[in-house]
Amino acid sequence: MPGETITGGIRMLSPDEHTGQFWVGMPFQLAFGQPAVADGTILDVVESHMRAPTPCS
Predict the structure, then answer these.
(1) CB environment 18-54: b (16+ within 10 A), e (fewer)
(2) Cβ(15)–Cβ(50) under 8 Å?
(3) Distance between CA 41 and CA 30 in Å, rounded?
(4) At 10, phi and psi to the nearest 5?
(5) What is the spatial distance between Cα 1 and Cα 57, in angstroms, rounded to a whole number?
(6) What share of the chain is helix, strand, coil (3-state, %, to 5)?
(7) Burial class of residue 7 (count of CB atoms within 10 Å of its CB; 0-12, 13-18, 19+)
(8) In 3D, which of 36, 44, 53, 54 has the Cα closest to residue 10?
(9) Is residue 41 within 8 Å of residue 25, measured between CB atoms?
(10) Above 60 in pLDDT, residue 57?
């Protein structure tokens, strides 16, 4: 329901195209067309080849 908090997993359909692009604390949006259906923050990157260095603020 709107406003609820969840924890879930996301798997890329083309992981080779996303290597090194994710870091813990990175914000993201899930969208199915317009508008976005969820906003979130990455809590863990399970596959190390997908992890990017955390950017400096």
Answers:
(1) eeeebeeeeeeeeeeeeeeeeeeeeeeeeeeeebeee
(2) yes
(3) 11
(4) -130, 135
(5) 33
(6) 10, 25, 65
(7) exposed
(8) 44
(9) yes
(10) no
Read off the amino acid at residue 6.
Answer: I
What is residue 57's three-state secondary structure? coil
Kindly state the tokens that stand for 14. Answer: 């083309």
Model pLDDT for residues 24-42, shown as the tens digit of each residue:
999 999 888 888 888 899 9
Q: What is the residue type of 9?
A: G
Structure tokens at 25: 């604390």
Which of these, 27, 18, 29, 28, lies nearest to 51 by C-alpha position? Answer: 18
- Mean pLDDT computed over every residue of the chain: 86
